[in-house]
Design a protein that fits this description.
Two copies of one chain form a homodimer. With 466 residues, chain A is of the alpha/beta class. Chain A contains 15 helices and twelve strands. Chain A is globular.
């Protein structure tokens, strides 16, 4: 098993010129800075505040998720995951990366009896109706995922669907259509599960939503869909191991965090583009976006000073975005770093075919495969960015499976924690969304919350009609 | 029919404080600046360089697309669109916005005999195999979309699929499985269509890919899927009409362009977030992303000066991204404007249900609908952003259908052209992607192109293994 590696040549001055990092610093002040960050992270790790570091080794959680999946297997045609943010993005990534884009369209036989997997992570009634009117609810299992057990949107969706199931199946038959994944002790979901004997799985108290994919939040849907959940954790453990050294040059997560932080803080690259050259990793970019944005976008530093800091993660996918975003990356402001992900091993491939060799503008394609074209375009894009002075780096993965996906999840989670230390912010909280929640409670008439006062002035600025 | 309107209160000083635009300027220098931009756009419009202005009125194109769709109707179960960037994003938006997320999973009967619609906009062999191995090719129509008729990825996919069809059906039966949408006169696809009698539709010579959704590029898939293509153009014509006034306060596209440009150039808001509160408009954000990024991200201004300018468009969707990106929007750098899209009319809705009224943390949800929760969250998010000094504006649409989607397409296309004038760049070219193409040709051994020389120095900077 070749571990994930990183080529960051196009981040250093020798390749990038003045927009690059002086490579000497990687053995100098940046190595020192990382060593300090590493130390503070190790201290927090020892304190037990960051439970996700333990997830790759949590064989109890794995066994529990696998056992429940085994017990349920074959009883449902559809799995609907109800959750917001980190409670949904991990499962979506697992589905898209490991089961492929058309999983839900395949027949029961083609899925080997494994359920289709839908994600409800929006309260848009149109979107919910699209799913609910289509699915046979009697053959559907709902996995309600909320750490707190009281997330407004998750609970609203839960109530809607429970109501529908009660109508359709009668109150006494509804419980077995639910699995709750929630805090082991607290919250409404936990109380309901215990009072009514509903199947449930624990999210450790010290694991936040966006760091939870390797907990039962991701393990249960993975196991139910037939994904090798143990391999997922095995890959994560591998990444944890090789991302634990304090030596910058040997630490993939440390290099990622350090190079992106220095590109942002010293070279003005505040936008961090994650651009896998792999259609199946498209959703992974969105999982990373939430992780990076919510962990690092902060009003205060760890001493309480107002800083309003944080890079903006921007998802992209190769080659598709060469026809959408790359024009801006090439010619626009020098405010971006592009992080490529390349699959470098032998993949399933398709021959392009030389039967149109007489057409001049396409003849050159004929002797090649789609994989070769994809690879050539990735290398050409990285090189063109470099020639335009645009920083970029490339993670290289041999192939995509449960093990390497687990490795990617862990590598990027650890990088986020190191980045938190380098940006000097708390990567575990999300104070910024509180005000919106309070205002929503007010508008929804929740007891103890006032509706927001009308904004002052009362006048609205609106388009006029001529 | 209520036209789309715009509330930009949270862009002006009276609501936003020092981070806002002085509202007096909307009747002063900004109105004047827009009038100049408007004039230059009108001049180009008259010159005939920007063909997309004529698309809403092109009844010939509509008739041709509709006729071909009618002629083909019922013969295929699947429509696969092969195209890159603007050749794919418009069709995906049409599908997701008007047919819903589970269209492809519905039975032939539920689709009233209309085809499933797949988009191949990547050369990833794994993604292509996912689709090709699953679909019955004998029941599949391929719509190959390329303005130039020589886009490398599009042509590679075309050759792959043509090869498979020849194997499966024999050479003589393959032609009827294709419709080419391409330049009316030039390019390989046009030549092949004429030589072999393959059905084809024209993209007017003066319409670029990212402005082509209202041409046969979008009209044909729409018509084939049973979408009211005439209504799409009708809505676009409506937007064209009300976005043509030189009076800033009355011009929705003008206000959007002017406010975003001033927020960027004077207030540092270089990231423009499009955040519809509608799951069905998720793909619309990606259509807009390409339009805004590729049209405005430029190395040179119109006088040829090096400027490296352009805002970075960032797609988001409400309420989902409240649990992913909004933390960063609220607390991070003051470098963003959020553009909300709200559906304000009566939509299909779902009652949340009060059967858990005894659970304190969810009792408040019971008397409401999902739509009400969605709406409360949108308003709460806009207000919380405002209180944090974060600029935002809201487009209000009564409901989503072919007509209002056409209106949105046109409004944002016109706004892009105005923004081009305000940013002083050419919104119609994309020089920045040329180098990547040349390097790809070199790597693929195309005649007349050299492979890129090895970068200098030859040394690569890579992760070391400890």
């Amino acid at each position: 098993m070749t571990p994930i590696t990183l080529d960051f040549s196009n981040m250093v001055m020798e390749h990038l010129g003045v927009r690059g990092v002086d490579s000497e610093r990687l053995g100098g002040d940046l190595a020192d800075r990382f060593r300090v960050a590493h130390e503070s992270v190790e201290a927090i790790r020892r304190s037990g505040e960051m439970g996700f570091f333990e997830l790759p080794y949590d064989s109890d959680a794995l066994a529990q998720a696998q056992e429940l999946a085994d017990q349920i297997e074959g009883r449902f045609e559809n799995l609907v995951i109800i959750g917001m943010g980190g409670s949904a993005l991990g499962a979506r990534t697992l589905r898209d990366a490991l089961l492929g884009s058309l999983w839900n369209e395949r027949s029961n036989e083609e899925r080997a009896g494994r359920p289709r997997m839908y994600i409800l992570d929006n309260v848009d009634p149109g979107a919910v109706l699209d799913v609910v009117e289509y699915l046979d609810l009697r053959r559907t299992l709902f996995n309600v995922v909320s750490k707190s057990g009281s997330t407004a949107e998750t609970m609203a969706l839960y109530l809607v669907l429970e109501g529908l199931l009660i109508e359709e199946l009668g109150k006494e038959n509804v419980g077995e259509h639910f699995v709750f994944t929630t805090d082991p002790e607290n919250g409404a979901l936990r109380s309901i599960a215990e009072a009514e004997g509903i199947n449930s799985l624990p999210i450790p108290g010290n694991v936040g939503g966006r760091f939870s994919v390797l907990s039962p939040v991701g393990l249960f849907p993975a196991a139910l869909a037939g994904v090798d959940a143990a391999a997922l954790l095995g890959g994560a453990a591998r990444a944890d191991e090789y991302c634990r050294t304090p030596v910058l040059g040997e630490n993939a997560a440390g290099l990622m965090a350090t190079l992106l932080h220095v590109a942002h803080s010293e070279l003005g690259a505040s936008i961090h583009v994650l651009m896998p050259y792999s259609e199946r990793l498209r959703s992974f970019s969105f999982w990373f976006q939430q992780l990076w944005a919510e962990s690092l976008g902060k009003a205060h530093d760890r001493s309480g000073n107002v800083v309003h800091t944080g890079p903006t993660p921007l998802p992209a996918v190769g080659v598709t975005d060469q026809h959408a975003q790359v024009q801006l990356f090439m010619e626009g402001p020098l405010d971006k770093v592009v992080i490529f992900v390349a699959l470098t091993g032998t993949q399933r491939d398709m021959k392009i075919g030389g039967h149109r060799a007489s057409v001049p503008s396409v003849a050159y394609l004929g002797d090649h495969t789609l994989g070769q074209l994809m690879d050539a375009e990735r290398r050409a894009t990285a090189e063109a960015l470099r020639r335009n002075g645009r920083a970029n780096m490339t993670f290289e993965i041999e192939y995509l499976d449960a093990s390497t996906l687990g490795e990617l999840f862990m590598l990027m989670s650890v990088a986020t924690i190191y980045a938190g230390a380098l940006y000097d912010v708390n990567p575990l909280d999300q104070q910024g969304v509180e005000m919106g929640k309070q205002l929503t409670y007010g508008l929804m008439g929740r007891e103890g919350y006032d509706p927001p006062e009308r904004s002052d002035p009362d006048v609205r600025w609106r388009l006029e009609r001529g």
